[in-house]
Each structure stands twice: as C-alpha cells, then as structure tokens.
Write a structure and sequence with these properties.
Helix content: 55-70%
Strand order of the largest sheet: 5-6-7-9-8
Distance between the termini: 42 Å
Number of domains: 3
Oligomer: single chain
Number of helices: 14
Structural class: alpha+beta
Number of strands: 9
Order of helices and strands: HHHHEEHEEHHHHHEHEEHHEEH
CATH architecture of the largest domain: 2-Layer Sandwich
Low-confidence stretches: 400-419
Largest sheet: 5 strands, mixed
Shape: elongated
Strand content: 15-25%
Mean pLDDT: 79
CATH class of the largest domain: Alpha Beta
Radius of gyration: 29 Å
CATH superfamily of the largest domain: Dynein light chain 2a, cytoplasmic
C-alpha cells in the first residue's frame, strides 16, 4: 500500500471500502463466490497499479472486519470466512475443522493431509511445510482450527488474515451455540404447551361438544311434540340457532388448539386446509401459493407458520374488513418465508402496536414473539387505506453435523468426516 501516491490514497481507500461493502452484500444474499471476490480485488489492483496479493489481503481484512459479518447466520458466516480466505489470501485452499474432526467448511484445493494437520493442531501441535493452521478459541477452549495451504513465503501475510478470520469464526460458533441452546429450550417449552393443548382439545371434543349435540337433538324432539304454547316455536328456533353456532365455534376451537395434526402434515397441506376452511366460514377469498423446498422444517416451525398465517387471516377479517387475502409461502436452502397480503382498510403500524400494548392485545405482538422465539423475524407493512402485508421468516434448523454435511455436499466438496 506504500507504493500508492498520496494523491491516490483517498481514492484507493474508497475503492476498498466499496469492494468490502459489495462482498458483504453478496454474503448476506448467499451469492458470494471465490471467483467474483478475486476478480473484484484484481480490478482494484489493476486500476491503481498495485501488487495483487497485497490488495487482495487488504480487501479480505476489511471484509472480515465489517460490522455486518457477525450479523450473518452462523453457518453462512463460517462459509463466508473460508471462501474469503480461499479467494483473497495467498493460499491454494482453506478449510475449517471442528474439534471433533468434522469439516465445517472447505474452499479451494485442499490437500489430503489437511485433516491430519487439523487434528494435530487441535492437539496442540503446530502445522508445517506448505500448510499452516490457526486455532479458533471459543469460551476458553480450542473449538476449531483453520487450515491454510500456503507456501512458507506467504505465511506472514496469511498469519495475520488467519488471526482475523479465527476471531470471526469464533463469534459465529459462539452465536450458533447460543441459538441452539435457545432453540432447545424453546422446543421443550413449545412441545410441553402443545401437549397440554392437545389434551384440552380432546376434552372439549368429548365433553362440551357432545353435550351441545345432545341438547340440540332434545330441542328438535321438543319442537315435534305438537305443543302450541305462545312463542314456543320462535323461542325454540332461536335456541337451536344459538346452540348450532356454539357447536360450530367449539369445533373450530378444537381444530385450532390441537397441534398434532399440524406437526404431522406437510406445511402446504396444512395451509391449504386452513385457507379453505377460513374462506368457507367467513365468506372471504383466500388463495394460497407455495413454492420451493418446504420440507425439513421442525414441528415447532410448521406450527408457528400455520398459527401466524391463521392470526393474519383473523386480523384481515376482524380489523381490516378484507374480502380477498393472498398467502404466499416460499422455501429455499436457508429458510422459509410466509407472506400474507390482504385488501383490507389497512392501519398505521406504529399506532396499532402502541394501542395493542396498552390494551393487552396479543395479535401482532404474539405473532412477532412466536417467530422471534424460533430465531426468525416478522415484518408488518401497512398504511391507512391498505393493503396490509405480514411476512414471517424462519431460518432452517438442523443438527450441526447434518448442516455441515449438507453445506459440503451442495458445494461439491467432501462431506464432513469424523477423525
């Protein structure tokens, strides 16, 4: 960097900042490639007549230090760090190995000895030759090790980049551990709650609904006994109508409270059934469109998405006066997005949330909390006059070993192995 004239320094730093910003945005979108990162760095080096290795290393350092890196999903953050090293550090390949011997991520051309060298580094023995290692320290222990294939002449430059990369990986692994712990606690709470709700659903079905049905039958028989007391028929019709409405309401309540069917059924089937029933009961047009991969969701995630969509439909009916609602659900390798859009009267989001908090209403707040507890996010867009859109996003969850195997296989790399 010292070869740059003072008059060009500002422009160079601006180009590096712009390049790091572009790489971070690509990482956030899951579209970062080694070839693209390398081409961007080479373009900057060529424009300023600088050594390519130096510019690539500086761009790598700036990207690793960007504030957006820790905000990436943990697995994506780990993969991004390894790809940046493979693309911008003077190495032939880079890989990250867990303390148990599993390959968490690999990029570039990795040698056959990388696995044994990683095991040696985890045991406290340093790398040698054309392979250097950098331990990833997390919560006072070595949780993983970075393995870089680089000639000895490049080790000083690689060592600095590896230290920065190890810090980024440590943050990602710690965040993943915290998220896993929260997910486990949340799943235990949700499963216990859902079991209680299932029992309640059976109790209501086998108790009050049966009583209501019996009363309805008795009223019909009473209406056929030939009596002509004043107003008797009118009163009987009114009672019968109210009992029929109560029976329908209780049956709907049991369907809402009983989660086991939601947990077992595919997400698209649950949403289609819910939309059909809701539209038929309330005279509202509800269209459901699903696309992408909706498999592999946990029972808690399926239940949460179905409940969020149901609450959004209820809000559209009760508060928006909507007559047409569109439900769009799309899944990809990173997660599932459910979007509900209605043609109702809309509302001011900030005002509505404040009013709900004051009055203790849990509609929007409850939806947001349900999604947040699963590590997702909920966004509400509306304005007076409409339309209103509620969007929920849940990141896919899988055990760490399965996630590592899936990541490696999708990138055409060897699946994780256990030492």
């Amino acid at each position: 960097m010292a070869t740059v004239a003072a008059s060009e320094t500002t422009a160079l730093f601006a180009a590096l900042r712009s390049g790091a910003d572009a790489l971070c945005r690509l990482a956030e979108e899951g579209r970062l490639s080694e070839e693209g990162a390398r081409a961007l760095a080479d373009e900057v080096a060529s424009a300023f007549g600088l050594d390519g290795d130096v510019v690539r290393a500086e761009l790598c350092s700036r990207t690793l230090g960007d504030a957006r890196m820790p905000a990436l999903p943990p697995r994506l953050a780990v993969e991004t760090v390894v790809r940046l090293l493979a693309a911008l550090a003077p190495v032939r390949g880079a890989s990250l190995w867990a303390s148990g011997g599993d390959c968490l991520s690999a990029a570039g051309r990795t040698s056959a000895e990388a696995r044994s060298l990683a095991t040696a580094a985890l045991a406290g023995r340093a790398g040698h030759g054309d392979v250097m290692t950098a331990p990833v320290r997390s919560w006072g222990r070595t949780a993983a090790v970075l393995v870089l294939e680089a000639p000895p002449s490049a080790h000083p430059l690689c060592r600095d980049l590896a230290a920065e990369a190890a810090g980024s990986v440590a943050l990602a692994l710690e965040r993943e551990a915290l998220l896993d712990r929260n997910r486990q606690r949340e799943r235990s709470l949700v499963e216990a709650s859902e079991r209680r709700l299932a029992r309640l659903a059976f109790d209501i079905h086998d108790g009050p609904i049966q009583i209501v049905a019996a009363l309805g039958l008795e009223l019909r028989l009473l209406g056929d006994d030939g009596s002509d007391a004043p107003g008797r028929d009118r009163a009987l019709r009114g009672l019968h109508e109210r009992l029929a409405a109560l029976e329908a309401e209780l049956r709907e309540l049991t369907q809402t409270l009983e989660p086991t069917s939601i947990a077992r059924r595919p997400l698209d089937a649950s949403l289609a059934g819910q939309a059909e029933a809701f539209g038929r009961q309330h005279g509202i047009t509800v269209a459901v469109e699903t696309a992408g991969d909706l498999e592999g969701l946990t029972p808690s995630q399926r239940i949460a998405l179905v409940r969020v969509v149901h609450e959004a439909l209820t809000n559209a009916r009760d508060h928006g006066g909507a007559t047409d609602v569109r439900v769009a659900v799309r899944g990809d390798r990173r997660g599932v997005t459910a979007r509900v859009t209605d043609n109702g009267g809309g509302f001011d989001v900030a005002t509505a949330l404040a009013a709900a908090a004051r009055k203790g209403r849990l509609g929007l707040v409850g939806m947001s909390e349900r999604v947040r507890l699963l590590g997702g996010r909920l966004e509400v867009e509306s304005r007076p006059g409409g339309p209103t859109t509620i969007e929920a996003y849940l990141e896919r969850w899988s055990p760490p070993a399965a996630a590592a195997a899936s990541t490696a296989a999708s990138a055409g790399r060897p699946v994780p192995v256990t030492a």
